[in-house]
Design goal:
Elements (H helix, E strand, L loop, with lengths): L8 E4 L4 E5 L2 E6 L3 E4 L6 E5 L8 E10 L3 E10 L2 E9 L13 E4 L6 E4 L2 E2 L1 E2 L8 E2 L17
Antiparallel strand pairs: 1-4, 2-3, 2-10, 4-5, 5-9, 6-7, 7-8, 8-9, 10-11, 12-13
């Protein structure tokens, strides 16, 4: 991932991607994309339409990415569990990132389980970044203690 580009690149994911929360499967897709950016594990974005109804509810807060634009946060619901602000998307992503329109990313550490082709992902360290680490991704990763200045 240290050879990932800056600015980031969006690419399709030829794999099944799933998300579980509260003991329930809340998202299942073969239409995910991932964003690759230097010093970060990939961030996976799933189509809004591939989440079960009611799994995503508008939350509070927003953030800004110098490449993608303004993000909004979503609360994630599964079973009897609610994770406030555990997902985000870019309602109007900037040029070069329009593939993210109508797609959502989640913080893997706040879910029961996120998988890529059956492999359970490891969440990116720290509380701000939302990368998913699989066996083929090698660190160190931004987000770990002492890495904020990278």
């Amino acid at each position: 991932m240290w050879d990932y580009p800056r600015p980031p690149r969006v690419e399709p994911v030829p794999a099944r991607v799933t998300i579980r929360l509260g003991g329930e499967l809340i998202a299942d897709t073969r239409s995910a994309v991932r964003v690759l950016e230097t010093s970060h594990p990939p961030v996976y974005y799933l189509p809004l339409a591939d989440f079960v109804p009611g799994a995503l509810v508008a939350g509070s807060g927003s953030s800004f990415c110098e490449f993608k634009g303004a993000a909004r946060y979503l609360d994630v619901h599964g079973g009897d569990v609610v994770r406030p602000g555990a997902a985000w998307n870019y309602p109007e992503p900037w040029a070069g990132f329009t593939e993210l329109t109508d797609r959502v990313a989640v913080y893997a550490q706040q879910m029961d389980e996120c998988t890529v082709d059956g492999e359970v992902v490891t969440p990116q360290p720290g509380g701000f970044y939302g990368g998913w680490i699989t066996h083929d991704i090698v660190g160190p990763f931004k987000g770990a203690p002492g890495s904020m200045g990278w």
